[in-house]
Design goal:
It is a single chain. By secondary structure, this protein is of the alpha/beta class. It has one domain: Rossmann fold (3-Layer(aba) Sandwich). Helix content is 35%, strand content 21%. The chain contains four helices and seven strands. The protein has a five-stranded parallel sheet with strand order 4-2-5-6-7, sandwiched between helices. Strands 1-3 form a two-stranded parallel sheet. Strand 6 (88-93), helix 4 (98-110) and strand 7 form a beta-alpha-beta unit. Helix 2 packs parallel to helix 3 (71-78). The radius of gyration is 14 Å and the shape is globular. The two termini are 21 Å apart. The modification 4-aspartylphosphate is found at residue 63. Residues 6-135 form the Response regulatory domain. InterPro entries: CheY-like_superfamily, Sig_transdc_resp-reg_receiver, TCS_response_regulator. Keywords: Phosphoprotein. It comes from Flagellimonas allohymeniacidonis.
């Protein structure tokens, strides 16, 4: 079982949040799974924890379409923060708009963090959604 210190689920849909949490319980040991209904709440939490010297979450499940601060705005603000650790960010969406995929790909190419793209509904969580696997060894 994978062991992580912190996972954030940023999604305003309680059914998606429930499903992700339920799947996580079967494949990961993590004492700190936090949920946020929008990107602003999550960003405020990350900034507060960084000020206190607390590491950012190792994994984020991030919805694109949310009120107040959507997933794209969250990513733009997250990338401005001085975070050296690579975060695995799973962008989750019910959107079928190809521009969302293109925008994700642009973020993926231009940022330090690992970005995955997942369509809703999420039926499973893959190992690469939680941890990078080194295939070079």
């Amino acid at each position: 079982m994978t062991k992580l210190n912190s996972i954030y689920i940023i999604d305003d849909d309680p059914i998606t949040v429930f499903g992700i949490k339920k799947m996580l319980k079967t494949i990961v040991e993590c004492p700190n799974v936090k949920t946020f209904e929008n990107g602003k709440l999550a960003l405020d939490q990350i900034m507060d924890e960084l000020r206190k010297g607390i590491q950012p979450p190792e994994v984020i499940f991030l919805d694109i379409n949310m009120p107040i601060m959507d997933g794209w705005e969250f990513l733009e603000e997250l990338l401005k923060l001085d975070i050296k650790e690579k975060i695995i960010i799973n962008v989750v969406t019910s959107s079928i708009d190809t521009s969302d995929y293109q925008r994700w790909n642009k973020f993926r190419i231009n940022c330090l963090h690992y970005l995955n793209y997942k369509n809703k509904p999420i039926f499973s969580i893959e190992p690469t959604d939680l941890k990078r696997i080194n295939l070079a060894s």
